[in-house]
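Work Package 4 report. The design task specified in the project plan requires that, given a folded chain encoded as structure tokens, an amino acid be chosen for each position. We show below one input record used in the internal validation round.
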């Protein structure tokens, strides 16, 4: 019995069409989400204008004030602080696993990082609420604050930064190491002068994607940040992020109140898309010899 086999060119074309269709479906879903958010937000945008969401000092949609600036500032500040905490730790962990840890130890640390990535956000929020918040409260009340939310977010994005950094370092061409070793450079010098600069674009992309994830987190932030709509003046101030605001108010919002929450969602989505575009533009490419 003759078995008909496909030529490599036919298989390649079929794979190309399959991948192209998958990419088109993903892009179409993203476009539909954006259109849905814009459609739901349009009634209030057309009625009060975009400027009201920027210049209003408070958030009381039922009273006609739509100030998103305090919550947007809190979201950005919390994500930025989380990245400042997680990025050095994630890069250091990746360097340790890649260049210093022996086989079993490196595998143990990688397993721990993957396990941390799989912990549900609500569990991290519960830990933050019962352990971290009381510790911060001893420094300054009430404990639920910008700092608490940032630390919990840092734990959430640490695995993303560590894993992407290690993957970037692993993909650095071995010829770079051979050439640097032939020049007599120490391991530390090779890491600082060769490996990290070569993998810089990929590490930057990983950090930006982790920032996008931090911006979109809801439950853990809601549990530990205090949920007060105000511009933060210190790390110990309770704040409310855009995601927490949507989660808290969507259940009972109607009319312009509901539409203004979709404006929050649209603003958050555009911000995340900007970070994703920046990560894509950074290349995430490691130069190979």
């Amino acid at each position: 019995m003759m078995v008909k086999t496909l030529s490599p060119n036919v298989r390649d074309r079929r794979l190309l069409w399959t991948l192209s269709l998958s990419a088109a479906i993903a892009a179409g879903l993203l476009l539909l989400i954006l259109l849905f958010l814009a459609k739901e937000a349009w009634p209030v945008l057309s009625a009060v204008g975009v400027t009201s969401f920027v210049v209003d000092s408070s958030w009381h949609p039922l009273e006609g004030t739509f100030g998103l600036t305090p919550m947007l500032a809190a979201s950005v500040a919390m994500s930025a602080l989380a990245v400042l905490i997680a990025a050095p730790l994630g890069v250091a962990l990746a360097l340790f696993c890649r260049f210093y840890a022996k086989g079993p130890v490196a595998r143990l640390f990688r397993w721990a990082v993957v396990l941390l990535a799989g912990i549900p956000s609500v569990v991290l929020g519960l830990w933050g609420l019962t352990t971290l918040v009381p510790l911060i409260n001893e420094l300054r009340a009430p404990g639920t604050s910008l700092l608490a939310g940032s630390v919990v977010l840092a734990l959430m994005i640490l695995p993303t930064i560590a894993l992407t950094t290690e993957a970037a370092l692993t993909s650095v061409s071995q010829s770079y190491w051979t050439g640097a070793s032939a020049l007599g450079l120490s391991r530390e010098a090779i890491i600082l002068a060769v490996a990290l600069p070569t993998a810089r674009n990929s590490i930057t992309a990983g950090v930006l994607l982790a920032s996008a994830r931090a911006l979109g987190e809801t439950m853990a932030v809601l549990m530990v940040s205090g949920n007060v709509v105000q511009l933060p003046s210190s790390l110990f101030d309770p704040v409310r992020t855009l995601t927490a605001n949507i989660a808290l108010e969507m259940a009972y919002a109607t009319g312009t109140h509901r539409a203004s929450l979709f404006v929050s969602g649209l603003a958050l989505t555009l911000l995340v898309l900007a970070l994703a575009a920046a990560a894509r533009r950074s290349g995430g490419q490691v130069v190979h010899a």
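The longest strand covers residues 59-60. Validation will be extended to a larger panel in the next phase.
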